[in-house]
Specification:
It is globular and about 35 Å long. It is an all-alpha fold. The longest helix has 17 residues.
Length: 101
Amino acid sequence: MSVETTATDEGTVLAQLAGMLRELLEDYGLDDAEITMDTTFHDDLELESVDLVALSGQLREHYGDRVNFATFIAERDLDEIIALTVGELVRYTVASLRATA
């Protein structure tokens, strides 16, 4: 496990998250997709729920228990999950890392 303790700024977390997403997207041949704070998981990246489960595993592997993706998703209804942006997850991750620093 490579728990990152210094990545508490949005730019660093965005880069790390984009790397994780590119790994997932590689299976679909979309690993060169542009990933920004405004990128949506559903419409832009076309990720399915199984992909979000895989992303959750990657987040846990990288950050340990400091970032709880299941809690993050559980607080949203279906429409909010469909509209979820990378930026929302980045901001949640940064807040979680800062809260546990």
